[in-house]
Amino acid sequence: MQKNKTKKYIALYCVLAVASISFSSCLKEKDADLPALYGRSTPNIVSFQDNGGPSGGGAGYGATTTPFPLYQFSFIGSDFFGGSAGFDAVIIYGPGGPAPQDITVNIAVSPQAYLDSFNNANNTSFEIPDASIYSFPSSVVIKKGQTQAYAHVSLQNSPVFDFSADYAIPLTITSSSTGAVSSNFGTEINYFAVRNKYDGHYKVTGTMVDNANGLFTGRYPMDVYLITAGANSVQLFDKAIGGVYHSFSNNGGLSYYGAFGIQINFDPSGDGTIISVVNVYGQPSANGRSAELDPSGTNKWNSSDMSMDVNYWMNQPAVITPHRTSFQEHYTYVGAR
Known about the structure:
This protein has about 325 residues and is mainly beta. The chain has helices at about 20-25, 75-80, 110-120, and strands at about 45-50, 70-75, 85-95, 105-110, 135, 140, 150-155, 170-175, 180, 185-195, 200-210, 215, 220-230, 235-240, 245-250, 255, 260-265, 275-280, 290-295, 300, 310-315, 320-335.
């Protein structure tokens, strides 16, 4: 789940090399596409270029160009929900000078098999989002005398947007009116994540009391992520367990409540007030567990230092009433996840 970004860019500048041999070794085009190897001039290639998306570290995914280059983008929730999120796919022509005339380049979402190939090669689980979430022009024109053009990919919220999914938009150059399409930089994978202002890496301190089992106690400090679940909500990802759960100490050993993980919902006004805490596995879940905000707490996220205080209960009336477990927790912001 980790999605921290690092500024490490894929070196695609080799597409612009003027020496025919180095150009061929960089792009690995088929011999038939490389008359320069036989003493003729280097052909001009149409391809995607580094579009400014960091290529390594995000979501735990390292830099790669195998079998296609990967670019990663992170958007704050206000941009995404406001409809201004997006990125440019950069298309270039070269290396033998600018376009001799206007060049029309057609682009499309890559076939699913392309993304499957990328996932298999890189042990990722990217999926293409619903078409209602993104849009882009089906063609762009590299103007005469220019070397590149931009296809802007717009992102927008949709009722079917799944914040737990690893979305990526694979784009392929399907044809060009002039120049051959690059065989390995004719497709790019664009991974993107959307995060609201509460999203991040936190350290949690506090107290936990299980009124049904005295051996179950808090194991603070906890190392957690708060992961965007909507414009005004986050889910607690417990790093000790590796999922949306809540760990605790069972007589000194690591344990957690099954079918119990919290989603924290904030006031849509954006002032940081917590309005509810719910169990992501159901209210109640199959084993009768639900979450409830304890109104006696501060229950607030603070914009000044991005810290948060929240009190809540885990209820399980078949075991004990009114509340089985109480949590009083303080979240200290560590950084972006």
